[in-house]
Design goal:
- It is found in: Mitochondrion inner membrane.
- One of its GO terms (biological process) is carotenoid biosynthetic process.
- Its EC number is 2.5.1.32.
- Keywords: Carotenoid biosynthesis, Membrane, Mitochondrion, Mitochondrion inner membrane, Transit peptide.
- The protein is an all-alpha fold and 332 residues long.
- The chain folds into three domains: 47 residues; 113 residues, Farnesyl Diphosphate Synthase, CATH 1.10.600.10; 167 residues, Orthogonal Bundle (Farnesyl Diphosphate Synthase).
- It has 18 helices and no strands.
- It is globular.
Length: 332
């Protein structure tokens, strides 16, 4: 199913280019063909055998696809027995990560977090709330005996972040990433039935890389809203004022800030990859997000660490193919 998605995504990209350049190819026909491609691209969901929870599964899949597209692609490449559970885990991550973005009142956001804290307790008492994500997370817990502590750690860290969202140092960014993104990676390892210290160590480094890259990607988005979560210590070190971040500063001092932060992310990525031969081969697919991280960091390097460059804000239509190659070559 993923290979079909991969090939169709590339075909759609090439077809769009052909339509733009070839006037003899009518717009009406091109629209019709693109519609067929789009319908086939998601055929894997229709081919999935029906089950009592199919509607809740589809909800989780669509949620991850909409808000976490790269990990949506990575999930499609996980072993079949863990795929649905991985979408439950990722959708829980999306739900809790969006609380701070979608709710302006801090008290309301904390109430949303409390809902999830209560939901986790109920899930482990076999009385989950009747919401799609909670139900699928309960099924994942039942199937794979997922550790409650990782779910609670994600919630606790996000609650702290609501109270104090700024980052004083890069170490604070790493800690936040460890407690949130790395915890998701640990749950994914559990979903494929692996408990291995080296795999956990690699997952920790990958999670820190993912968290830092997410921070960098969000810089333009937050700047438009006059917010920044870049480490204050790094900004001060290079004499960059928050107002310059908001204005989209492209001076060398700002590029140096991004370079320093990206270097930390790359260091974690390399550390995770250095453990490839020491972790069970069955875990390699869990580390496929490393391919997406590599693509972003290389793209950032190509534009001299200008985090505002338009090329970094566009979806990489070749990413499905890149991830497929990574899977064939053994992940990482």
């Amino acid at each position: 199913h993923f290979l079909k998605t991969c090939l169709l995504a590339i075909k759609e990209t090439l077809l769009k280019r052909f339509c733009w350049k070839n006037n003899s190819f009518s717009m009406k026909r091109s629209a019709s063909v693109l519609r067929i491609i789009k319908n086939r691209q998601y055929a894997w969901k229709r081919e999935r055998s029906s089950s009592a929870g199919s509607s809740t599964v589809d909800y989780c899949i669509n949620l991850v696809k909409k808000y976490d597209y790269e990990n949506y692609l990575c999930n499609l490449l996980l072993p079949q027995e863990a795929r649905v559970s991985s979408f439950a885990i990722r959708s829980f991550n999306v739900e809790t990560a969006q609380v701070g973005e979608s709710v302006t009142e801090k008290q309301t956001a904390l109430m949303r977090m409390q809902f999830w804290s209560d939901a986790i307790e109920k899930i482990y008492k076999d009385a989950p709330p009747q919401t799609p994500v909670a139900l699928e997370l309960w099924r994942a817990v039942q199937k794979h005996k997922l550790s409650k502590r990782w779910l609670n750690r994600i919630l606790e860290e996000r609650k702290k972040n609501l109270e104090n969202p700024s980052n004083k140092t890069i170490e604070e960014v790493e800690k936040y990433s460890e407690n949130t993104v790395s915890s998701i990676n640990y749950l994914l390892l559990e979903s494929i039935g692996v408990k291995d210290l080296t795999a956990d160590h690699a997952a920790s480094h990958l999670g820190k890389c993912q968290g830092i890259v997410t921070l960098l990607r969000a810089v333009p988005h937050h700047a438009q809203r006059r917010r920044t979560f870049l480490p204050q210590q790094t900004l001060i070190q290079h004499s960059v004022a928050e107002e310059e971040v908001f204005r989209g500063c492209k001076e060398k001092k700002m590029l140096d800030v991004i370079y320093d932060i990206a270097s930390v992310a790359n260091s974690h990525l390399e550390k995770a990859r250095s453990m490839k031969k020491d972790v069970p081969k069955s875990t390699h697919k869990v580390f496929l997000p490393a391919g997406a991280m590599e693509q972003y960091l290389l793209g950032l390097q190509k534009v001299d660490f200008n985090v505002y460059h338009s090329s970094l804000q566009q979806r990489n239509n070749w990413l499905p193919w890149t991830l497929w190659k990574k899977k064939i070559m053994g992940g990482f």
